[in-house]
Design a protein that fits this description.
The complex is a heterodimer.
Chain A: E1 6-12, H1 17-33, E2 38-44, H2 49-55, E3 62-67, E4 71-74, H3 80-87
Parallel strand pairs in A: 1-2
Antiparallel strand pairs in A: 1-3, 3-4
Chain B: E1 11-12, H1 19-22, E2 27-28, E3 32-37, H2 43-56, E4 61-65, H3 70-78, H4 84-89, E5 93-97, E6 105-106, H5 113-126, E7 130-134, H6 136-143, H7 146-162, E8 166-172, H8 177-189, E9 192-201, E10 204-214, E11 223-229, E12 232-235, E13 251-252, H9 257-262, E14 267-268, E15 272-277, H10 283-296, E16 301-305, H11 310-319, H12 325-329, E17 333-337, H13 345-359, E18 363-367, H14 369-372, H15 378-394, E19 398-404, E20 425-434, E21 437-447, E22 456-462, E23 465-468
Helix pairs in contact in B: 7-8, 13-15
The chains are: A alpha+beta, B alpha/beta.
Chain lengths: 96, 473
């Protein structure tokens, strides 16, 4: 797999708790499920409102998966099962 | 007045026709106003017109649309004759498409900081003082948690207050108790709350507006009908008129010298005259004599007719000796005809008031009060008549209204549709059977401010028009 087969754009709002949590959750998920084949771009909407306006992202945190297909998620990604399902990834089986 | 000595709440005029009268100046400046209404009730348009009118005067505004596309807003408003594009190009209007991806998946908590960051930058870069947020319920549904919704709304409200922007927030009428909770909190949060609705009355669609709350200010508390047609939203604040009637003016001829003599010299300017009678009793002929005489004096007359077409009316008058063609050709007479059922009473009213404004007539003839009932409901017809009479009285115009009664001798029907208190003079025309022939007669029932005859007077209608017969002594 190429290094950036899974490309994510994470929109955060500064140091706000949910945004910090979302970044933490996304990085953990990528390390577990997409090692070596993901790229995460972080946009702070408080700094770069133009990017938020263009992507029509009104809430933060929000994750846009740009590749391999387009998916948008709102929230801190607390629900791992739901997040994986949305991204089309299989949950790791602890017995494997 | 003591009212003027009290500190007044700063207001932000909407410039929406008629609304500022109801709001006693406009929306609360630097605060939030909530507009609640069902689909198609005109909420978005209220928000957009609030910004559009100000933008035309050079005051910038931001419209945030959670539902509609900016392109659709431009197209929809072009039917009202608005061109938003130049205003957008020179930074006076920003259509902020904040549509939320319906396929987006929610997992965990989030806030509206991104939305506020965009809004913050736009407000600062444009110098905007007016913001309209359309369909905030879309954002609330996405959060879908009562406590967090309230927190976000409160944060938004505080943020807007701190930025000193006058905000118009629209929300759809709650369909069930689950949605009602959005509304309750918004209602509490807003300083001014306006309800809109679009309902059917007598098979005609009728729009209504009602202000239900206005912290720190008085407001017109009735339901006000409104229409949406070029140049925009037009409200008809009926109860806020009638305070500036002109005093009854000089006497002018009724068109019939004998009738002038019966009522002390003629009809008075700025008065309202009701001519009542059964079909064929000569009401229209009398109106035509009056019209003809007024035009001959060089005055302008506007005839509103809900019963006959222009051609039918003009030709009917020819047979009784009145040729209205020259007056029409000289622009002294304008006939405005329409079927009462063709549109709602509000639209009739807008059309009529526009005609009065354009023409500036000194006399108005309206035929007939009875036909106006077909505009929808009796209430609608009553409001139409009342507004017409009030407008004429304010402008010093004399208005003649005919009313068709059913009985041959029915005094009870004289008042028409509850407008009798606004009527200054009443002339009743009758057809009575007398010794095997129909006899025409008229009675001056009422003539405010005049000594008038109290007797029945016989008259004839010939190709010379109406002739009042000498009394047999």
């Amino acid at each position: 797999m190429s290094a950036d087969e899974y490309r994510f754009r994470l929109f955060i709002a500064g140091n706000e708790p949910n945004s910090l949590l979302a970044e933490q959750n996304l990085r953990a998920l990528c390390l577990t499920y997409l090692p070596g084949c993901h790229h995460i771009e972080i946009i702070d909407v408080l700094q770069d409102f133009e990017a938020a306006l263009q992507a029509m992202i009104m809430v933060a945190p929000a994750v846009m998966m740009l590749a391999p297909r387009a998916v948008t998620l709102f929230g801190a990604l607390n629900d791992t099962a739901k997040t994986l399902a949305a991204l089309g990834l299989k949950q790791a089986n602890p017995h494997d | 007045m003591t009212e003027n000595l009290l500190p007044t709440l700063p207001k932000c005029p909407t410039q929406i026709e008629g609304l500022d009268v109801i709001l006693k100046g406009g929306l609360p400046s630097g605060r939030t106003t909530l507009i609640i209404g069902g689909p198609g009730s005109g909420k978005s348009l209220f928000g957009l017109e609030f910004l559009y009118r100000a933008a035309l005067d050079g005051e910038p505004g931001i419209f945030i649309s959670f539902e509609e596309r900016a392109a659709d807003l431009r197209t929809n408003t072009s039917t009202l004759g608005w061109d938003l594009v130049p205003l957008e190009q020179n930074g006076k209007l920003f259509l902020f498409e904040a549509r939320i991806d319906p396929k987006a998946i929610v997992t965990g908590e989030f806030g509206i900081q991104s939305f506020l960051a965009i809004l913050n930058h736009k407000i600062k870069s444009m110098g905007a003082k007016r913001v309209a947020i359309d369909a905030i319920d879309v954002l609330m549904r996405l959060i879908n948690d009562e406590r967090r919704e309230q927190n976000e709304l409160l944060a938004l409200h505080q943020w807007l207050s701190e930025h000193d922007v006058t905000t118009l927030l629209t929300v759809k009428t709650p369909r069930d108790t689950d949605h009602a909770r959005h509304y309750e909190f918004l209602d509490y949060m807003a300083d001014c709350v306006i309800h809109l609705d679009n309902r059917m009355l007598g098979q005609l669609s009728t729009r209504r507006l009602r202000v239900v709350k206005y912290r720190g200010s008085g407001f017109g508390s009735n339901e006000y009908p409104f229409v949406i047609e070029p140049p925009g939203i037009i409200l008809l604040p009926i109860s806020d008129i009638g305070l500036s009637h002109q005093a009854l003016g000089e006497r002018i001829s009724t068109g019939l010298v004998e009738l002038d003599n019966l009522i002390g010299g003629g009809f008075r300017r700025a008065s309202s005259v009701l001519i009542t009678g059964s079909t064929g009793s000569g009401k229209t002929t009398l109106c035509s004599a009056f019209t003809h005489a007024a035009c001959a004096r060089g005055e302008k007359v506007l005839c509103l007719n809900f019963e006959e077409s222009e051609a039918a009316l003009v030709s009917a008058m020819l047979s009784s000796g009145t040729d209205l063609h020259p007056a029409i050709a000289k622009g002294k007479l304008r006939l405005l005809t329409a079927m009462p059922e063709a549109m709602g009473a509000e639209q009739h009213l807008v059309r009529t008031l526009n005609a009065i404004q354009q023409m500036q007539p000194s006399c108005v003839v309206l035929e007939s009060a009875s036909a106006c009932k077909r505009m929808g409901t009796e209430q609608a017809a009553f409001e139409y008549m009342m507004r017409m009479i009030n407008t004429c009285k304010e402008m010093g115009i004399i208005i003649l209204i005919t009313n068709q009664t059913n009985g041959l001798n029915n005094l009870d029907e004289i008042s028409g549709i509850g407008i009798s208190s606004l009527i200054d003079s009443v002339i009743q025309m009758q057809l009575v059977a007398d010794a095997g022939a129909m006899q025409r007669r008229l009675l001056v029932v009422k003539s405010r401010g005049s000594v008038h005859s109290h007797r029945y007077h016989n008259f004839q209608i010939s190709d010379q028009g109406i002739t009042i017969l000498k009394e047999d002594v």
